[in-house]
Amino acid sequence: MASPTLITPTSTPKSLPPIKTKPTTISATLSPTTTVHQRRREFLSTTSSILTTTFLVHVAPAFAASDEEYVKETEEVISKLRTTITMDKNDPNVATAVAELRENSNSWVAKYRREKALLARTSFRDMYSALNAVSGHYISFGPTAPIPAKRRARILEEVEVAEKSLKRGR
């Protein structure tokens, strides 16, 4: 037995009475026939356009790193990377050198990966790849584990290509 409130194919739905809104007089410039929703929409659009233009004018553009700064910092990271991965495994300073390299590489990546102009550069791509390989090795095997010869050769090759690209402005 079906409930009388259920809609069945034979029953016809009852229409709801129309919602009546009373015009309120918020502003004398608006006609009394405009609804509250229209007034709210006008207010919000006006306010947002005023605020948007105000903030856009006063906000300074994001400071993009200069080319000289990128080249200088990349060369510093390259030299740090070369000295760190060529250190002898019995050297007592290996762990601190690896920690410094990871700190430098993390700050370099965090600073330059947001720069759209640098993402297409060969130097950035190769440097990022080399830093990723070194960081991944030390994360997986610890700061005192020596990098295998094959991996070290590939990393040094990527660093050399990145350095040549830097000198060419790429």
Automatic annotation (TrEMBL):
<keyword id="KW-0472">Membrane</keyword>
<feature type="region of interest" description="Disordered">
    <location>
        <begin position="1"/>
        <end position="26"/>
    </location>
</feature>
<dbReference type="GO" id="GO:0010207">
    <property type="term" value="P:photosystem II assembly"/>
</dbReference>
<dbReference type="Pfam" id="PF13326">
    <property type="entry name" value="PSII_Pbs27"/>
</dbReference>
<dbReference type="InterPro" id="IPR038450">
    <property type="entry name" value="PSII_Psb27_sf"/>
</dbReference>
<keyword id="KW-0793">Thylakoid</keyword>
<dbReference type="GO" id="GO:0010206">
    <property type="term" value="P:photosystem II repair"/>
</dbReference>
<dbReference type="GO" id="GO:0009543">
    <property type="term" value="C:chloroplast thylakoid lumen"/>
</dbReference>
<dbReference type="InterPro" id="IPR025585">
    <property type="entry name" value="PSII_Psb27"/>
</dbReference>
<feature type="compositionally biased region" description="Polar residues">
    <location>
        <begin position="1"/>
        <end position="14"/>
    </location>
</feature>
<dbReference type="GO" id="GO:0009523">
    <property type="term" value="C:photosystem II"/>
</dbReference>
<protein>
    <recommendedName>
        <fullName>Photosystem II repair protein PSB27-H1, chloroplastic</fullName>
    </recommendedName>
</protein>
